[in-house]
Amino acid sequence: MAKAGTIHVRLAGVDAPEGAHFGNQAQPYAEEAQAWLTNYVLNRRVRVQLLARDRYERVVCSAKIWRWGWRRDVSLEMAKAGWAELYDNAGAEYGGLERQMKNAVETAKLYSAMSRTNCRRQRRGMWAQDMKKYQSPGEYKKLHQ
């Protein structure tokens, strides 16, 4: 339940795995994505800019925090970390960061780095799952409406 004065916003430009609601199971990595987001913004001052209202009358916002001396866009950082994909439905808002968000998602999907144990490709966040079984949040929502 939301506290008085709480405003729920939809982060501009990204779509994260769906959590369990309306009797449906959560998508893989939904809890991890939520935990990442909570940890990223918790106890930080968040500057939110209203960009639009979506077709469900939710407020779509660009959210920014100061981190390590720089203003960071929360949606872009979530995409970089591999916990969201690009939201591309009609009327999508990106706060001027569409190209950067596309690049961030692609980088997270293909990220290569040397680990201590091997040199294999290591996808970030939700992209570490078996992509043959992957279902986008948009596909999941259509199936479970």
Keywords:
145 residues, alpha+beta, OB fold (Dihydrolipoamide Acetyltransferase, E2P), four-stranded mixed beta sheet, two-stranded antiparallel sheet, globular
Describe the structure.
The protein has 145 residues and is of the alpha+beta class. The chain has a single domain, classed as OB fold (Dihydrolipoamide Acetyltransferase, E2P) (Beta Barrel), CATH 2.40.50.90. 27% of the residues lie in helices and 19% in strands. The chain is built from four helices and six strands, in the order ββαβββαβαα. The chain has helices spanning 30-41, 74-80, 98-110, 137-143; strands at residues 9-11, 14-15, 46-53, 59-67, 70-73, 85-86. Strands 1, 3, 4 and 5 form a four-stranded mixed sheet that branches. Strands 2-6 form a two-stranded antiparallel sheet. It is globular.
What's the structural blueprint in terms of helices and strands?
Elements: E1 9-11, E2 14-15, H1 30-41, E3 46-53, E4 59-67, E5 70-73, H2 74-80, E6 85-86, H3 98-110, H4 137-143
Parallel strand pairs: 1-4
Antiparallel strand pairs: 2-6, 3-4, 4-5
Helix pairs in contact: 2-3
- CATH fold annotation: OB fold (Dihydrolipoamide Acetyltransferase, E2P)
How much beta, percentage-wise?
Answer: 15-25%
Number of domains: 1
Q: What order do the helices and strands follow?
A: EEHEEEHEHH
Query: Overall pLDDT, averaged?
Result: 87
Radius of gyration, in Å, reads: 16 Å
Task: Note poorly predicted spans.
Answer: none
| Number of helices in the DSSP assignment | 4
Provide the structure class: alpha+beta
How helix-rich are the residues, as a percent range?
Answer: 25-40%
For the report, how would you describe the main beta sheet? 4 strands, mixed
Q: What is the 3D shape?
A: globular
What is the first-to-last residue Cα distance?
22 Å
Can you identify the CATH class? Mainly Beta
- Count every beta strand, where a strand is a DSSP E run of 2 or more residues: 6
Quaternary structure state of the chains depicted: single chain
> What CATH architecture would you give?
Beta Barrel
